[in-house]
């Protein structure tokens, strides 16, 4: 029966964590965009996407049509014409299977303008006789002849075969073969990038990245003297770039469009990047761990000290209040316990910054502030549990036989108190974690609060989302563990917890 309780609680982890993730991303998506120049263009494009569902994802087909319409709709020599020309050249060889067969459907003047706009592409592809494309009256004939003789090469199988030969041999002839496919070969090249580069395949990785850099006109290559770690970092940058740029070089078909409706969104891009780069990438994981290991230790230390102090105080105070239930002294103690909670964490922390830090140091003072804010909930639950236990017939009989109220509380109330404290502690820890971030700022401690605030300031949702998902997963797992622990400590709770829809 305990196993069924745990499984039922864990099954709720999937929908609850997903729901919290979506709500949290919706809130964090309202953060201002990063102002760093390196990411402005990428973030600007990402923020223009819908949040969770894209009814009309812009694939290669849409972008080719838009660039062509912009070119033909602009006046010759205008800035709009130049921008459209650059867009077509950037789409590159991937656009040719859509663009060249459609030339015959255009008017002679429009056909000439489109063919002339591809001059930069012909030069980048290093096609023989590309100088003919400079003359407008020859450009159309040049591209039609190219497609007649080379059109069959623009197939996925051909691109993959050429990419494999390049990785195996790395000769100039193999490089030239891929230059002639240009961006059409991007998916095949990305597929062949080694997940974890080694000294053995460093040369193949260098050749593949060299072609990627050439066809996309990005200066991000693996140098001749680059180390394995530098090469790995370069490959991760290319994978991250492909997550954002992929749809611009691929024409969607059938079910791919349904998937793109979910993935080509702000949430979809973040999720894919988080899994493909931050989770699967060893280099990114190492950077994250190295950057957050020290702050995480500080936050865990503060959280653990605060929880231990609050637990010890709650046990002592809760037992004492339960034995003096209803007295004026007990009511005064309850009011005094609530004072730090009512004064808010910031006020309590500010007082201890001034009074406690010079005496015991910032870490202990911050732990005391955290304990004072957690104490009312723990003491209240323990008071109720021990008081209820002392009111039972067995405890009353023990007191009547001469046992002290303290002894009766220890014998008859500790089990109930342990159940209540386990349940209260598991649910209070996420709140305590948030309190830790505030106290770290107040006391100037090195913890996760500082990188979290920096991430929010930059508009980076990665770290806040990771903490929220981890907290949601912890809450679900902790609730399941608390239920199982409660049943082990007090088997009388088992029938109530096994009823669907009922919890203690």
- Say what the CATH topology of the largest domain is: MetI-like fold
- Tell me the radius of gyration: 33 Å
Quote the beta fraction: under 5%
Order of helices and strands: HHHHHHHHHHHHHHHHHHHHHHHHHH
The gross shape turns out to be elongated
Assembly annotation: single chain
What is the CA-CA span between the terminal residues? 16 Å
Any overview of this molecule?
With 504 residues, this protein is mainly α. It folds into three domains: 60-153, no CATH class; 156-249, no CATH class; 285-498, MetI-like (MetI-like fold, Orthogonal Bundle), CATH 1.10.3720. Helices cover 74% and strands 0% of the residues. The chain has 26 helices and no strands. It has helices at residues 2-11, 13-28, 40-47, 60-73, 79-91, 96-99, 108-117, 119-125, 136-150, 156-169, 172-179, 186-192, 202-216, 228-245, 255-263, 266-279, 282-323, 328-342, 344-355, 357-360, 362-390, 393-400, 405-443, 449-458, 462-489, 494-498. Helix 19 crosses helix 23. It is elongated, with a radius of gyration of 33 Å. Mean pLDDT is 79; it is low at 500-504.
Topology (SSEs and partners):
Elements: H1 2-11, H2 13-28, H3 40-47, H4 60-73, H5 79-91, H6 96-99, H7 108-117, H8 119-125, H9 136-150, H10 156-169, H11 172-179, H12 186-192, H13 202-216, H14 228-245, H15 255-263, H16 266-279, H17 282-323, H18 328-342, H19 344-355, H20 357-360, H21 362-390, H22 393-400, H23 405-443, H24 449-458, H25 462-489, H26 494-498
Helix pairs in contact: 1-25, 2-25, 4-5, 7-9, 10-11, 10-12, 10-13, 12-13, 13-14, 14-16, 17-21, 17-23, 18-21, 19-21, 19-23, 21-23, 22-23, 23-25
């Amino acid at each position: 029966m305990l196993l069924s309780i745990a499984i039922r609680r864990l099954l709720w982890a999937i929908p609850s964590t997903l729901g919290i993730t979506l709500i949290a991303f919706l809130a964090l998506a309202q953060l201002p965009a990063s102002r760093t120049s390196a990411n402005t263009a990428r973030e600007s494009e990402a923020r223009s996407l819908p949040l969770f569902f894209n009814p009309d994802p812009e694939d290669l087909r849409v972008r080719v049509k838009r660039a062509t319409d912009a070119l033909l709709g602009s006046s010759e020599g205008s800035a709009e014409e130049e921008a459209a020309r650059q867009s077509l050249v950037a789409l590159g060889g991937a656009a040719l299977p859509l663009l060249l067969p459609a030339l015959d459907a255009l008017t002679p003047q429009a056909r000439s303008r489109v063919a002339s706009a591809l001059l930069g592409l012909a030069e980048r592809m290093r096609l023989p006789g590309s100088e003919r494309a400079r003359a407008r009256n020859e450009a159309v004939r040049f591209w039609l002849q190219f497609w007649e003789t080379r059109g069959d090469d623009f197939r996925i199988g051909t691109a993959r075969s050429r990419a494999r030969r390049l990785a195996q041999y790395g000769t100039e002839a193999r490089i030239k073969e891929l230059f002639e496919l240009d961006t059409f070969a991007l998916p095949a090249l990305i597929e062949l990038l080694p997940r974890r580069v080694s000294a053995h395949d460093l040369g193949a990785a260098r050749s593949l990245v060299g072609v990627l850099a050439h066809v996309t006109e990005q200066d991000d290559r693996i140098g001749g003297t680059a180390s394995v770690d530098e090469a790995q970092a370069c490959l991760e940058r290319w994978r991250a770039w492909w997550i954002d740029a992929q749809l611009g070089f691929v024409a969607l078909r059938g079910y791919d469009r349904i998937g793109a409706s979910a993935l080509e969104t702000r949430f979809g891009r973040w999720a894919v990047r988080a899994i493909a780069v931050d989770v699967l990438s060893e280099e990114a994981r190492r950077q994250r761990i190295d950057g957050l290991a020290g702050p995480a230790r500080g936050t865990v230390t503060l959280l653990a000290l605060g929880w231990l102090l609050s637990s010890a105080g709650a046990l002592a105070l809760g037992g004492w209040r339960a034995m003096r239930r209803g007295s004026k002294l007990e009511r005064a103690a309850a009011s005094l316990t609530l004072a730090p909670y009512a004064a808010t964490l910031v006020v309590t922390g500010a007082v201890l910054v001034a009074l406690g830090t010079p005496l015991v140091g910032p870490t202990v003072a911050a732990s005391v502030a955290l304990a004072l804010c957690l104490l009312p909930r723990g003491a209240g639950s323990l008071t109720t549990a021990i008081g209820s236990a002392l009111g039972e017939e067995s405890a009353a009989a023990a007191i009547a036989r001469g046992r002290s109220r303290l002894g009766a509380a220890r014998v008859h109330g500790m089990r109930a108190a342990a159940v209540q404290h386990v349940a209260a502690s598991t649910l209070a820890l996420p709140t305590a974690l948030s309190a830790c971030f505030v106290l770290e700022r107040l006391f100037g401690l090195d913890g996760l609060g500082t990188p979290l605030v920096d991430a929010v300031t930059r508009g980076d949702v990665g770290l806040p989302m990771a903490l929220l998902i981890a907290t949601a997963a912890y809450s679900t797992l902790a609730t399941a563990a608390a239920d199982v622990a409660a049943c082990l400590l007090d088997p009388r709770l088992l029938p109530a917890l096994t009823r669907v829809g009922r919890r203690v």
